[in-house]
């Protein structure tokens, strides 16, 4: 069996120069001192970045003009260059293709969900944690492209800062707003880049000047089921929301749809998610892409319901957003409704994801797969 990539602490090979967002408070202070600057500048820079959402030192008014170039070179190197941006849903959904310093391409999606009865408005950003993905799920555009490299902590965090700034500046349809939710459901397997994702989670949830201060309950980390990393995450005390991309309740099919299942099978993955729920007190989500005539049969709905009925789990059904030329297609609405009903009758809470961005190559990895020459 070919070993699938599982990276807990890889070297910086291929990564960009160290950025402010790569550093915790102590390292940030040391880096500022290393530039020959007073230590108080570390707190000043961090407040600009995390509280004011400013990433350009030339616009940091409390930083002397003579220091801005030095700070830019030493602590705020450019990380993301916009290649192309697409908008839909009256401007409330924005998908951006970014080029990293080495030419690798990644994507992020910013979405505004209006307030509904019993719920507040949400502005959510979906971020990437790897350039490409090594998990090789055949229905996923990113998985079929393979893994280029892990992203740095700062490359992950910068996607959030840019999104939060865009929301605050009113660039998203509906006027100015506050970024409220972050989901690690973009390109890559977050738990295969564990250490950098963990550091990014701290930057996202720690209060200023060490982070953006986003509620931990509003941050979701999705995984195909990297069991050892789920256990490690549970012990951190961060208590972010866990989402497991299951896509099949039986090992025979899941071995095909999610190849990492040959390493950690359904029972092991659910046991790890149960342990996470027991440790954190948080319900976890089961992500299930509805694929026509592949995993949407009635008996699979019943098996999934029987597996999850005793568990602290919620099912998020995802209408498949097929990629061009793919053999995979979305289940019909009739089959989708029947699947939902079979879960509900077994007492399993279930929702169907609000599909966004079908007209802007919204499926993860579609823009990057096309390449910059074709999209812009």
Automatic annotation (TrEMBL):
GO annotations of cellular component type: cytoplasm
Gene Ontology biological process terms from the UniProt entry: rRNA base methylation; tRNA methylation
Gene name, Swiss-Prot/TrEMBL: rlmN
Binding residues for S-adenosyl-L-methionine: 188-189, 222, 245-247, 321
InterPro entries in UniProt: Aldolase_TIM, Methyltransferase_A, RNA_MTrfase_RlmN, rRNA_lsu_MTrfase_RlmN/Cfr, rSAM, rSAM_sf
Protein name according to UniProt: Probable dual-specificity RNA methyltransferase RlmN
Catalyzed chemical reaction(s): adenosine(37) in tRNA + 2 reduced [2Fe-2S]-[ferredoxin] + 2 S-adenosyl-L-methionine = 2-methyladenosine(37) in tRNA + 5'-deoxyadenosine + L-methionine + 2 oxidized [2Fe-2S]-[ferredoxin] + S-adenosyl-L-homocysteine; adenosine(2503) in 23S rRNA + 2 reduced [2Fe-2S]-[ferredoxin] + 2 S-adenosyl-L-methionine = 2-methyladenosine(2503) in 23S rRNA + 5'-deoxyadenosine + L-methionine + 2 oxidized [2Fe-2S]-[ferredoxin] + S-adenosyl-L-homocysteine
Molecular function GO labels: 4 iron, 4 sulfur cluster binding; metal ion binding; rRNA (adenine(2503)-C2-)-methyltransferase activity; rRNA binding; tRNA (adenine(37)-C2)-methyltransferase activity; tRNA binding
Cofactor: binding comment: Binds 1 [4Fe-4S] cluster. The cluster is coordinated with 3 cysteines and an exchangeable S-adenosyl-L-methionine.
Positions bound to [4Fe-4S] cluster: 133, 137, 140
Extra remark: Reaction proceeds by a ping-pong mechanism involving intermediate methylation of a conserved cysteine residue.
Cofactor: [4Fe-4S] cluster
């Amino acid at each position: 069996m070919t070993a699938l990539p599982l990276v807990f602490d890889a070297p910086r090979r291929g990564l960009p120069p160290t950025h402010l967002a790569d550093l915790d408070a102590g390292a940030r202070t040391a880096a500022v001192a290393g530039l020959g600057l007073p230590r108080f500048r570390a707190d000043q820079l961090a407040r600009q970045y995390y509280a004011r959402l400013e990433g350009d030192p030339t616009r940091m008014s409390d930083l002397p003009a003579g220091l801005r170039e030095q700070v830019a070179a030493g602590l705020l190197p450019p990380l993301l260059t916009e290649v192309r941006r697409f908008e839909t849903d009256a401007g409330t959904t924005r998908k951006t293709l970014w080029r990293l310093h080495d030419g690798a391409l990644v994507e992020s999606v910013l979405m505004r969900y209006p307030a509904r009865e019993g719920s507040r408005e949400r502005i959510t950003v979906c971020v990437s944690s790897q350039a490409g993905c090594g998990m090789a799920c055949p229905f996923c555009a990113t998985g079929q492209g393979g893994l280029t490299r892990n992203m740095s902590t700062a490359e992950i965090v910068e996607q959030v800062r840019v999104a939060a700034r865009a929301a605050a500046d009113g660039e998203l349809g509906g006027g100015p707003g506050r970024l409220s939710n972050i989901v690690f459901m973009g390109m890559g397997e977050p738990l295969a880049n564990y250490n950098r994702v963990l550091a990014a989670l701290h930057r996202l949830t720690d209060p200023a000047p060490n982070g953006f201060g986003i509620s931990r309950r509003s941050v979701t980390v999705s995984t195909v089921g990297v069991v050892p990393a789920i256990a490690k995450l549970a012990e951190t005390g961060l208590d972010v929301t866990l989402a497991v991309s299951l896509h099949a309740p039986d090992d025979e099919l899941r071995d095909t749809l999610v190849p990492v299942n040959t390493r950690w099978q359904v029972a092991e993955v659910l046991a790890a998610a149960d342990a996470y729920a027991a440790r954190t007190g948080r319900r976890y989500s089961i992500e299930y892409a509805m694929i026509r005539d592949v995993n949407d049969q009635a008996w699979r709905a019943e098996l999934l319901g029987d597996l999850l009925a005793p568990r602290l789990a919620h099912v998020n059904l995802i209408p498949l957003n097929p990629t061009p030329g793919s053999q995979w297609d979305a289940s019909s609405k009739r089959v989708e409704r029947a699947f939902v009903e079979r879960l509900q009758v077994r007492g399993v809470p279930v929702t169907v994801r609000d599909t966004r961005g079908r007209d802007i190559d919204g499926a993860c990895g579609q823009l990057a797969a096309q390449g910059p020459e074709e999209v812009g």
